[in-house]
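step: validate -> pass
step: tokenize input -> pass
step: predict -> running
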Amino acid sequence: MLLDLIRGGNALSIFMGVCVSAFVVFCVMPIHEYAHALVATKLGDQTARLSGRLTLNPMAHISPWGAIMILLVGFGYAKPVPVNVRNTKMKNKKLAMALIALAGPLSNLIIGFLSVMVRYIILVAASKRGGEMTTAIFALNVFFQYSAIININLAVFNLIPIPPLDGSRILFAILPNKFYFGIMKYERYIMAAMFLLLLTGVLTTPLSYLSNLIYNAFNQLFYSIF
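step: predict -> pass
step: emit ->
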């Protein structure tokens, strides 16, 4: 994300990119993790609440490496919310884990959707005033555009089925336990390899393709509405 903006050389775009990254780290990621904690709590598991994760306080959720990744490449993560599905009221514990895992990416998609909507509202309001692109309108346009892109990126990224991302918890609902926990043994190594692939651009290409499909679909929807 920031690396691409620096290559572009637009100072205002770089500034807005940093502001959006900060917005994601301190506002969006806490909502993502809070969504996990809230669904787990509603299903009967109090682990997240007792661990101090049922909160929107960003300091309870920030992962330093995940925040750096968001700033540099637009993909990242926060500290995983502790969950014990055995405490949930649902009989199907694997389904409970999948629902808890889906809550985070779903919150990102909702914020991304709303960001695109607000961006179009701003542009329509500007067009009714003569279409003049003032600095304030340009800044807001860039902010909500980046907000939508990063939120969609986070949703797609967190659905990758490798630990400790949300997709791995959804995978838990499909795989036999022995295979899932066998994969979890190599969590650190998998994360290190993924970080390297993101920085080199190998993984960002397919992730960006999927993110663009969703972003373009949201844009097409509001373009047809407005």
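step: describe -> The mean pLDDT is 84.
step: cleanup -> pass
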